[in-house]
Specification:
2 copies of one chain form a homodimer. By secondary structure, chain A is an alpha/beta fold. Chain A contains 13 helices and 12 strands. Chain A has helices at residues 22-37, 58-64, 82-95, 125-128, 133-148, 152-166, 180-185, 213-219, 247-260, 277-286, 295-300, 317-321, 325-340; strands spanning 4-11, 46-50, 73-77, 101-109, 188-190, 193-194, 203-212, 224-234, 269-271, 311-312, 354-361, 370-378. Chain A starts with a strand and ends with a strand. At the A-B interface, helix 2, strand 3, helix 3 and strand 8 of A face helix 2, strand 3, helix 3 and strand 8 of B. Strand 3 of chain A pairs antiparallel with strand 3 (73-77) of chain B, so a sheet runs across the interface.
Chain lengths: 379, 379
């Protein structure tokens, strides 16, 4: 089977875009990705579009705005892993020899369209009684603190690190660094998580162009291989079930490492699912970057910093770039593309050769069964 | 690449199911499909779930109810072609060698959950001014009548034929035959389409199990090959643009015939996208079963009857089985499975060897760009 390469990427800034409709945001991202790849729009053979709330036939509508139609377009949803699922769909189609060039698009308007809240599942009893996302992750934090002695300062340092990275990323809306004290004294959302421990609610879009080995090198001498793309399902985190880790992430990561023929020690940078500080900590452990329970210490020692052993959330992560659901998983692949080509500017991870992208969708309150994706990219 | 076979199918009756939640409907269909295939649930390697309105991580929730988790699950949406897109996704993954056994699930609750109406696109000006589905298809009917001399009696005969088939299908809610006079004198919905010219609003679910050549024959000596599965995109019908045919259907059908190595003259039975009588007529022409404009005459001559040249809508079609959006495309494949194995009971198409399934999603009012799928199955 052919190798699959990323040959182009584009995205909008992640922030409230009250004046721009979501199809236009996605069009901008797709157009930027196409432009950066050098592929003629009509040469795109297949598309997946990931989103959670943007209505029917979203991908077709976006592509029609750039004059691309006729091709197979699948709109896919996997909650916060919707964008990753779109990348996975295109990756598979190219692996299968059904297309040589495909586009994955992800987009969401949350900040503008939904009044600042991620809509809950209307008929879910637990959500309606307050088991909303911040409280789920607060319970996860409490469990981790109880079990391993993780501290609120360690969690706050993750927010500080990701903001430090985010202010270096022009796609992030943040321009000011923050301190541990600021994180700890910010308004409490769900104890121990303050407002600065939670990702902002954003609008945004991202797109990547994937190509088969046969064609990738006709477009660029500098492609990035998407070596493994694993999609799994299960329960995201066993919060309330005496387990503060993500079994489905652990399984998907194991499989991705097997496919790529590398281990966590080889990863130079990682964009993972960090809607809350605790999620980054737990996922660093789940992905094998440190032993379970050691995440706090690794954060203290700066091992996940831009210059550390694994640069985690070099673009700012969900925490400091934002999390427009469908866009996130695609934006991660875009970031990997730029980082592994050495084009990430002020947030560049020095000497980055191998990257890992990870998302989790659903699997918690109101969405009892969810999705996870782990992708490994190699320069 | 491996051939892909259908080795199991299941569905619920299509009708209002006010007491049953949609995940339970889908579970019933999936369980029936799994049971009919003989596959152990844990051997299912991949799933696609098609729906338009059923919330996040739908497929994962359904599969968790039968103890299936961990596998890749993609939820996909392509309006009325959502179910077909799910089948297409599984077909592709098996073709790609990424799975040997996969399940496609489709489901929707419209009659119960949405108060009897297909929700419109909220911000679409044309829809809000009355350009809703019945009026779009009424314009299509008027254009066809004007151009080709098609009559309201010919259109009514399609409803009569499909009801005749539907009453022989235990999955259809209808038990009474209807006459041309009844169709013509039913309450007018959008002239010339009366209530009996329009599909009912239903709840329902369907599922099929697909397998690679390597494994299909270990489960059944009687598999049905899914020889071609083509997904296209474009404008569904150029209503209001002086064209009453579906260019994207014509293109997808051409490609599917090429892949399958057969022509329309080889098709014994066809389940197509007939939410309104006129749609069946137009699509029979688009799929090549008769020359453009000749559909009415072919209907008069009984050529699309169960015993005719091509049995069109042998299960009753959308018109007389119902159209729970996500379920429809999967139900078509289930019907092909039963028909081509000679298991379709009172609605059996005699000697059926080759079947074609066709859906159209979006591409009209409020959803300007849509999807189409054409699949060819062979015994």
């Amino acid at each position: 089977m052919t190798a699959v390469y990323v040959i182009g990427a584009g995205m909008t800034q992640f922030k409230p875009h009250p004046q721009t409709e979501v199809h236009e945001l996605a069009r901008q991202a797709a157009w930027a990705a196409i432009g950066s790849s050098g592929v003629e729009p009509r040469k795109i053979e297949l598309a997946y579009a990931g989103h959670a709330y943007q209505g029917q036939c979203f991908g077709q509508k976006v592509l029609l705005r750039i004059g691309v139609t006729g091709l197979p377009v699948v709109n896919c949803e996997n909650a916060c892993a919707s964008g990753s699922s779109a990348v996975w769909g295109v990756f598979n189609a190219i692996k299968a020899g059904q297309a040589d060039i495909g586009i994955a698009i992800g987009a969401e308007k949350l900040a503008s369209a939904k009044g600042g809240f991620t809509p809950l599942v209307a008929d879910d009893l637990e959500s309606s009684l307050g088991r909303v996302m911040p409280s789920v992750f607060a319970m996860m934090a409490r469990a981790h603190m109880e079990r391993y002695g993780t501290t609120v300062e360690q969690l706050a340092r993750i927010a500080v690190k990701n903001r430090h990275n985010g202010v270096r990323n022009p796609y992030s809306p943040w321009r000011d660094e923050i301190t541990v004290d600021q994180v700890l004294s910010a308004p409490m959302i769900a104890e121990p998580l303050t407002r600065l421990s939670c990702c902002p609610v954003s609008d945004g879009a991202a797109a990547v162009i994937l190509a088969s080995e046969r064609l990738a090198k006709t477009y660029t001498s500098n492609p990035v291989e998407l070596r493994a793309a694993v999609l799994g399902s299960g329960i995201a985190n066993g919060v309330g079930m005496a387990d503060d880790h993500s079994e489905m992430t652990i399984r998907a990561a194991k499989r991705a490492y097997e496919i790529a023929g590398i281990g966590p020690e080889d990863i130079d940078l990682c964009e993972l699912h960090d809607p809350f500080t605790i999620a980054e900590l737990v996922h660093c452990e789940d992905l094998g970057f440190c032993p379970p329970g050691e995440g706090g210490r690794y954060v203290d020692e700066g091992r996940f910093d831009l210059g550390g052993e694994v640069a985690v959330s070099p673009a700012g992560g969900l925490l400091s770039r934002g999390h427009p659901l469908g866009a996130t998983g695609v934006a991660q692949i875009a970031e990997m593309f730029w980082q592994l080509r050495g084009e990430a500017g002020a947030r560049q991870v020095p000497g980055a050769k191998v990257g890992l992208a990870h998302t989790v969708g659903g699997g918690v309150t109101g969405i009892e069964a969810g999705a996870t994706s782990v992708m490994i990219l190699v320069k």
